[in-house]
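User: structure tokens for DUF418 domain-containing protein, please.
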Amino acid sequence: MSVSKEAPVCQIGAREHLPDQLRGLALMGIVLVNMPFLALTNAGFVPSNTQGLADRVAEFVIVAFAQGKFYLLFAFLFGYSLSLMLRRRTADGLRRFRRRLLGLAVLGIGHAVFLFIGDILITYAILGVALLWFVRRDDRIVLRGAAVAYLLGVAVLAAVVVSVANGPQGAEGSGFVADPASLDASLRGSFLDAAAGRLASLPGILGVLGALNWSFALAMFLLGLAAGRRGVLASPQKYAALWQWLLITGIGIGLPGGVLSALLTVTGHESATREALGAAVGFATAPALTGAYIALTVRWTKRPIMALVEPAGRMSLTGYLGESILLSAIFCGWGLGLFGQISAFPAALIAIGVWFALDVFASLWLARFHYGPFEWLLRAWSYAQWPPMRIRMRTSMPPDQKVDAHRNKTIDAMMASGGLRGTAPTAPERGRGGVASKAGSNDSSPGMSR
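Assistant: Done. Predicted tokens:
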């Protein structure tokens, strides 16, 4: 692996702000959705951790407005990023993307075994291979593929609901683990106990997540790929009609679907069929609410609040893994050991605090470094070279301005030594080393190469 000696230099406006803002928001939603399984029980929300009014409100809000929505938002941005990678580096973009998928798979397996069994990176790595087939297809085929993937996902959800309705009732919880009690016990043990428990449960949960989520994730991958080709987030002002349509669809379909899903889930803990139906309604209507979130972010992109979430989005991989690291350290037996000891509402507050802490960390980190820690590792693997990490302070100005700056320093030195006593250079003196008075406005300002 070679070493890249030159720091990448991005001109002002080279990096799109909207994708980073969306990633930052997605991280907030994802930490809330993952929280029950990291903090409460692998059965998810159950009566024992949602007894109080605040707990039930927290469950309702998370299920209605976050569950399934931000996972799909991340998937959309994954496809969008692929289009940018291929646009900028057409010669070897596919090779680097394949290496990136392999790197994500390795990170995902490590994440699932050592931190959180509900990992999404493995899904991205697997579905990313399918996404490669669409790279050389036109947008019409890509969009048709997205529609087919979505309809397939809805069909699978319907089959699951029918299967659950014909099975035994009374199963408690909304988790995806076959034996949540056993996995819960391992999380209360040592670090190796927890890892062994996750490893034993991983094949089963991959099958469940594959059946329930992969079709919808692939659909959002493809929509992101098409959106990236058309520069939808790079030039959002050109797509005002699209944003309006997404808002209407989100309010008309996504919002009622999310609320109905939450009502069925919150009131259906004693009925497996009711819970399965609630989950199915939520997942099936989630893309509509995800689209509305994108449209709202486009409208609010220049508001100060969006600048606050952007740093987390620039380090989304580090943020995603960091959420699991911090929550595991707080709740697992090898850390503070709070797993299953608190209810849903305080756990949600802790999850929000974790997101905020990582957002602040990202802001401080990016003031000194080009990439987040895990972004740097993945980029090094994808590009087969070590990218520069630390931001170097340097002057960045045209050569003629550098000459003028040098002349200014010379004149300042002469004035300080008495060689020039407040005499301004006349026009003929310009040819003998003087500078025009306005040259000082082009003073050498240290800049950060990004």
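User: Anything notable?

Assistant: The longest helix spans residues 191-229.
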